[in-house]
Structure formats: C-alpha cells, structure tokens
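# nightly structure sweep
# worker-07 picked up a monomer target from the shared queue
# config: single-sequence mode, recycle default, output format = structure tokens
# input follows
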Amino acid sequence: MKIRLVCYLLIFGLSLAIGTGCTSSETIDPVSPDDGSEIVLENYQLTADETWESEKTYIVHGTLEIPQKITLNITPGTTVKFGRNALVTVQGILKIGTPLAQTQVTQLVHLTSDNIGPASSDWDGIFFDHTHDLESFIRGAVIEYATVALDIKTTSPTIEECMLRFNETAIALDGSDARVRYNDVVNNGIGISTIGRQTLPRIEKNTVAQNETGIHCENVQSIIEHNNLNANVFALRLNVKFDFRIPNNWWGTSDAIEIMNAIIDGGDPGLIAKQIGTVHYEPFADARIGDAGFPYLTLLTELPR
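# output follows
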C-alpha cells in the first residue's frame, strides 16, 4: 500500500513539474512588433482638429476626410504613406509642413505610396473640395506617386518650397487663386494644370522640368513668370481659344525657334483638334533663373527609405 502511494506521489510530482515547465515556456510575453510608431487609418473621418507628429508614420487606406471647420496639421518631419487608391478630401483646413511665418524649412513632410515598388497613380492624391478657405498651405513637402497630387478646386492654398515628383498630375488648379512658388515640379505626366477663367493663380519661381507636359493651360489669366520651364517633352500646352502671355521665363534655351517647338498652341494645327490661341512668351530669360525651384535639396537625403 505504501509502495503504491509512493508511486502515485512520484507520478503526480513528475506531472506537475512537466506541466509547470510547459506553462512557463508558453506564457512568456513576446516582444510586440507594434511599438506605436505606425498609425493605420482606414476610411477615417476627423471629428476634431488633429496634429500629426514626426515621431509616427501614418498609413492611410481608403478615404481620409477633413470635414468643414476641422483642421489637420501635419508637422515637419512627418511621413504619411498611402495605400492603393487612397484619397484625402479636404473641406476644412489642411496645413502641411512648415508654417509660412517661419523663415526656413528644416525638416520635410513626406507624402508617398505605401507600395513596395511605388509608381505613378498608386494613390489618388489630395482633393481640396470647394473649401473656400484661405488658411491651408503646403510648405516643405515631398509629394509623390499620386494620380493628382494636389487637386485644388475653388480654394487658394499656398504651395511653397515643395518637391512634387512621379505623379500623373502634380498640381491641378480649377477656379483657384493659389500661389505656387519655389517648388520643383519634376518627372510627372503633367506638372501644373490650370482651368477657370475668372481666377488668377500665381505660378512663380518654380522649376517645372522633365515632365511630359510642363504646364497644361486653360486659364489665360494665370500669372506664370520667372520659372524654369526646361527639359519637358512640351513645356506648355495651351488648350483654350484665347491668347496667353507668359513672359520672363527660362525655357532651357535662348533660341526662339526652340522655345516655339516646346510650346503647343494655335501655331501647331497638326497637334490640336480645336481652335487654340497663341502663346506670347517674349521677353524670355536668357539664362536659368537661379533662385527658382525647391531650395532644400540636401534635406531629401533625410527622407526615410
């Protein structure tokens, strides 16, 4: 009887040891891969003012909505990645990057594709939807791989000291008095598109280069001066029946014939299908405009890979 009791005790003790050992190894807390450095937003609508900070990476899927009377502030140094066909709609106020009152940009905002092999039109872009506000701005940002990176309708944000690249269209201005200055608009399908007869956007001191079409113009009230408009397949395409004056720009050459060849207007009947006006580009700069374009190229090396 004693022997049997001892056997039972030995078996119980052995079972307890084995069970305790298994439990211990399975319940050790693993290191969590989610350290809070990424915030994923899917079909997200702001309900109050928000500030996005550089310590985190924001990943947007679906539609990000900024309603009326709501402000989204994306601070310098912040990265925002967009999934396939993601879209930002702005009916409130959007502030991206360094405030206009500050003297210098020291960090860039990076708005880019979330795809491993990014390409033009990965995400839809930012749509300013008839907001009528005067407070939105984009300053010190790199915006890339969108269908229409900045689609601006009936509002007038300032777009300053930005790099817009690898988009189908970088900036589309429709009924806008926006100021677009000191930007590099490079390697896009269309660099800047303008439409709307009663508005007066100012496009000044930019480098618009290496695009299929640098500027696609249907708003002949636009002020487009002191820009570098070089190395595009077509520097400017006029698509309205009115004549258009665009003086004091650098076209990559001081040869008038070469400048004419870079412009599509009423003088190119073989390339157009409707009545088009004439572009008057004289006087033109005879050398590259040195202070035009994105002034913070060294900051590009600090963008996350």
